[in-house]
Amino acid sequence: MADLSSKIPDSHHVLEFPYTRTTGAFVGPFLTALRDGRILGSRIEGSTGSKVYCPPLEYHPETAAAVEPEFVEVGPGGIITSWTWVAHPTAKHPFQDPFAFALILLDGADSAMPHAVKASSPSDIATGIRVVAQWRPERQGAISDIYFVPEAQAVPQNIEPGEEPVTVTEHLISLTISEPIHDHRRRFAEGLLQGKIIGQRSPVTGKVYVPGRGFDPMERVRMTEADEVEVDDVGTVVGFTEINPVQYHGQKEVKPYIRCSILLDGADQPIQGIDIRHIAVEDFRVGMRMKAVWKPPEEREIIDIDNRYGSVPETVVERWEPTGEPDIPAERLKQHAI
Questions:
Q1: Strand partners of residue 293
Q2: What three-state secondary structure class fits 188?
Q3: Among 8, 39, 87, 187, which is least packed by CB within 10 angstroms?
Q4: What whole-number distance in Å separates Cα of residue 12 and Cα of residue 305?
Q5: pLDDT tens for each residue of 73-119
Q6: Which residues fall within 8 angstroms of residue 61, CB to CB, at 6 or more apart?
Q7: What percent of the residues of the chain are helix, what percent strand, and what percent coil, each to the nearest 5?
Q8: Hey, which bits of 24-167 come out as E strands?
């Protein structure tokens, strides 16, 4: 088999969903002020006198009792009290170039606020230097509406206030999961790029599993490259369901389609998650014989296979077509139904 490993990327998945919340009596005015070109803190009376906290606190820092809002405008300049350099930003960071996170004691405040400082290098950042807030051209009423720069780099800005207070805020919460592809999964993916479907034959039972898992799931024995076999790209439908897409964040499907399992000739386990979009559900049935129609080699890609999921994706097979052969009786397929 040709070395196609450079075309098989490691597995990267992003778990992401929108998080929406009401802002309340403290966060709401704070975010509204940020959108409108101001920074607010809250004044709270304590045992040693009043102090201004930024961002505003909804509770007394000494007693944890609820407090009434008393807002005070602070900043927009302040002093860095501590900082760290972010050399490799992620997609969720406020800048895609290296920058600093810092604790900033804003003018008029008694507590430091953590925020991002845009600087060309760590040499531009130091504890004790002054920084000034800068507002982004487009603002949504979020903490990311502002960032800070060293005072010498600040430019005057004329911020137009919005019309309505910020009462609801939405954020995308995400987690990126990365892992290297196991050798048996990589060889399976390489086979797909060559137009081959590779399974693994159990050294104990002789059953062929597609895709292979690197072990016999019933006998719990390891399977290696020596146990790999090529199976046919023709098989029989052993189960299916009609999918009616529900619209949610990230959903790309809009029309109903069929998702089925196909028992390939030469295999003892069906491949799952095969989507059929060109056959009406009333014309589809268990026992139907199907054949893969492969994409041209130069158009094949492997993007949806990880160490647990993914069989024969649409990025390598254009579609599955009926072969025209007689159906296999459903009762002969019961043991393979999924």
A1: 319
A2: helix
A3: 87
A4: 10
A5: 999 999 999 999 999 998 889 999 999 999 999 999 999 999 999 99
A6: 44, 46, 53
A7: 15, 35, 50
A8: 39-46, 49-53, 71-74, 77-86, 99-106, 113-117, 130-135, 146-150
